[in-house]
Structure to design on (252 residues):
């Protein structure tokens, strides 16, 4: 964020220009770059400022040192002046205001944060394994990290199958991650990281739900029925031709 210096900054520039005996009437540019950073671990926000005169750095200030430091030997005689002391006070005050403004912006952005709702499902697949799927719903912002754990240890990313993060239609997002495991294995949990918050959800204990098994039985019966239909049609057609031949007195 760049901020043009207010009147007391201009006074400082005029003072510095007076140190140059042959300063002409051309315009000069004073610019301050202000930086504030807030971490998610609860640490106090940090602040720093850099002052430039005609694109040349002449001042550095940060919240650790709590004082402006001159950059350039031509400023050595200015450090003990009232102008520089006023600069120190003003830069510090701006830093306090800037950190408050940043905190307000962060608080406002938190209104648009929604942590995910989680759900875990399991079902048998065609290979005889069990597919565990962890679904995350209704979260904002979009960035999210989902990992399967066994006994508290993260499993290889190559074993994961991940869905795309897509809009839910209500301003939030949804996605999923799945993994195939052997039915006799257990103690799996889904770990989710979102906006600095960690969530875990465990796979329910016990056998795979019966509904999942019925799905594959029904699919097998359907497939068998599809195969049987041509044989039934062929058999009925053969019986019909045989009966017609008998009625017409033709040899069967």
């Amino acid at each position: 964020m760049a901020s043009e210096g207010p009147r007391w900054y201009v006074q400082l520039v005029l003072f510095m220009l007076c140190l140059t005996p042959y300063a002409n009437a051309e315009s000069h540019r004073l610019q301050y770059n202000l930086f504030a950073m807030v971490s998610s671990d609860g640490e106090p926000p940090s602040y720093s400022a850099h002052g430039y005169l005609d694109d040349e750095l002449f001042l550095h200030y940060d919240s650790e040192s709590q004082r402006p430091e001159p950059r350039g030997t031509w400023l050595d005689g200015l450090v003990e002046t009232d102008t520089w002391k006023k600069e120190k006070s003003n830069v510090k005050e701006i830093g306090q205001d800037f950190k408050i403004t940043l905190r307000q912006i962060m608080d406002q952005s938190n209104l648009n944060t929604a942590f995910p709702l989680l759900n875990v499902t399991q079902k048998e697949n065609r290979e005889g394994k069990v597919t565990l799927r962890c679904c995350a719903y209704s979260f904002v912002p979009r960035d999210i990290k989902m990992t399967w754990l066994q006994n508290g240890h993260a499993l290889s990313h190559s074993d994961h199958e991940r869905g795309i993060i897509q809009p839910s239609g209500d301003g939030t997002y949804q996605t999923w991650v799945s993994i195939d495991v052997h039915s006799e294995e257990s103690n799996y949990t889904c770990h989710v990281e979102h906006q600095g918050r960690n969530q875990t959800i465990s796979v329910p204990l016990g056998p795979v739900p019966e509904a999942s098994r019925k799905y594959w039985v029904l699919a097998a019966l359907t497939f068998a029925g599809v195969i049987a239909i041509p044989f039934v049609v062929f058999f009925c057609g053969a019986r019909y031709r045989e009966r017609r031949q008998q009625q017409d007195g033709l040899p069967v």
